[in-house]
What we know:
Layout: E1 6-12, E2 24-30, H1 36-44, E3 62-67, E4 71-75, H2 86-100, E5 106-114, H3 121-132, E6 139-142, H4 152-163, E7 171-173, H5 182-193
Parallel strand pairs: 2-4, 2-5, 5-6, 6-7
Antiparallel strand pairs: 1-3, 3-4
The site of magnesium ion has 6 residues, from helix 1.
Amino acid sequence: MKIKNPSLEKIAVKKEQYPHPNLSEIALAGRSNVGKSSLINSLVNRKNLARTSSKPGKTRTINFYNIDDKFRLVDLPGYGYAAVSKSEKDDWGQIIEGYLYDRENLKEVFLLVDIRHEPTDNDLMMYNWIKDMGFSGYVIATKLDKVGKSKLQQYIKVIAQKLGIEDRKKIIYYSAETKENRDYIYKLMSEILG
Length: 194
Ligand code: GTP
Ligand code: MG
């Protein structure tokens, strides 16, 4: 997969604002700060197309990235960020739910988790939700560069156990810093998009 011309096509919170469902979409879900926006930047080879921050809660809208007019990568707002009000949390839930439940051109949802931490109950809820909706249940374990190779399998095991994943191939480890496994994700996306 060679990406030549990625752009931020649309920022949305409600359905009327979504772009036309003429292109297939792959969405990225996960806790705030897990690296969703960084994954997009590294996939499209741009430093700042998707805005990132070391402070959680950066992306609070659904951001649709148009990839060469072939498909879209969809950056969902991160959940589980403690320092927001209850009403804001409800908003996020509705924004995410509104999109995931009713998007005919949505082909796959990747759940991102930080490789170093056991997934939270929110992650588990999100993951079960994704599977219940009939998606494959791929998990991208981010920030691979922060763990030593010798510990890798231990970390993957914790993630697999918490999320109830039997097929370890469903868990893809990744680093937006080193871009390790980027080709694997390109290949997976190509397969998903057919
Ligand atoms: P929200 O927009 O708040 O939902 O967060 P997000 O999931 O989009 O996270 P974002 O991409 O903004 O990354 C959060 C922080 O983690 C930033 O400081 C990134 O530089 C850092 N980060 C993301 N991916 C990696 C990675 O693979 N390795 C390392 N070392 N840092 C990463
Ligand atoms: Mg973000």
